[in-house]
Amino acid sequence: MRTTLLAAALSLAAALPAAAQQAQCGGSWSDFVEGVAQEAIAQGRDPAAVQRFTASLRQDQKVLAADRRQGVFQLDFTTFARRLISTSRLQKGQQMAREWASTFDRVQARFGVPPGVLLAFWAFETDYGAFQGDFNTANALATLAHDCRRPELFRPQLLAAIQLYEMGDFDPARTTGAWAGEIGMVQMLPRDIIENGVDGDGDGHVRLKTSAPDALMSGGKMLQHLGWRAGEPWLQEVRLPAQMDWSQSGLNTTLRPDQWQAMGVRPRSGQWQAELPASLILPQGHKGPAFIAYPNFNVYFEWNQSFTYVLTAAYFATRLSGAPVFEPGTPDTGLSGEQMKELQRKLEARGHDVGGIDGILGAGTRAAVRAEQARLGLPVDAWPTRELVNRL
Predict the structure, then answer these.
(1) Residue 26 Ramachandran class (φ > 0 left, ψ -120 to 50 alpha, else beta)
(2) Which of 135, 141, 345, 358 is deepest in the core (most CB within 10 A)?
(3) Is pLDDT above 70 for 109?
């Protein structure tokens, strides 16, 4: 169900030479396709293969519509988590953990990624492979590369798809996936498949749509490539004191567990998991659920850039690893999409960069909320309320 892009691909695009980043986009579709073909041939692809691949490329307006429609990320963490994490999905995950136990053992031994982490992605991305998307991948990538919003991201992925086709692991007519071009059970973009694909079942191919061993091994390798640290935790639920310096919360502050403990923060169950620098995460403010995020948590943002998605995936990974259901607390009522847009307009009027008026509580909006909460003497926990809107 991926609705944002792999940030790994963003970092790859950022590393490209400046000329490559200024990808051609827009204009005549035929001229665009011809330009892609010429670039692929210049990269060493077989001209006949390139011609076969590009001959059938078509624009897909449904892809553009999906790219501009991401309202699910307007939901708060508790609502989003309850929508995605059902009893049946948890039970299915436990079943898949048993069914593919030997593969998960190989993934953990080779890449250091625990089963729960991959199971959570497998569940959220495709419901354990059941729903992998029905967009024609070649057309989706071409459409998004032609669109001038992010050509520097999608043009390299389209070229990578041509390379996969030449390798025999991509069919431009039949390969389908998510609207943003991700393929397979754990949804990887073509360039990520080339760089991190693993033949987990030994058949000589990397087929993420039909082979669970290929998908899980490839997902594990990609997480390791993105910085996953073996043997370390990623998220732990905590309980908070009635009062503390709420401005210490957020991903920009990291403290040792003994420092959090000195402030009155306690693990909900058991002991602190590790003596690692960690951040206090309050997705719905100081009255809502609370988590300590360890360094591995940051790797989730290399897979997906939505804070709500990332926290939910990380939390579900802990559930699949034996953690209890989180305590929802009694957070102040959040804002609707339109109310959030009203807040963003007011924040922009005060000179804050919120990253656009989209009704989504993203990093820019959270930072602006914190600044205004501090100015107004409100708890600095990055959770926007109607009171904040009114006082602005």
Answers:
(1) left
(2) 141
(3) yes
Note the Cα 23 to chain centre separation in Å: 24
Instruction: Give me the amino acid identity at 79.
Output: T
Contact 6, 145 (CB under 8 A): no
CA atoms within 13 A on the CB side of 76: 20
∠ CA 338-340-345, nearest 5°, is 95
Q: If residue 266 lies in a helix (H) or strand (E), which one and from where to where? A: strand 266-267
Contact between residue 81 and residue 284 where contact means Cβ atoms under 8 Å apart = no
Q: Are 118 and 186 in contact (CB under 8 A)?
A: yes
Q: How confident is the model at residue 1 (pLDDT cuts 50, 70, 90)?
A: very low
Using CA atoms, how far apart are residues 312 and 331, in angstroms rounded to an integer? 17
For residues 214-224, average pLDDT: 97
Sheet with 291-293, edge to edge strand ranges: 266-267, 235-239, 291-293, 279-281
Band of pLDDT at residue 9, cut at 50, 70 and 90 = very low
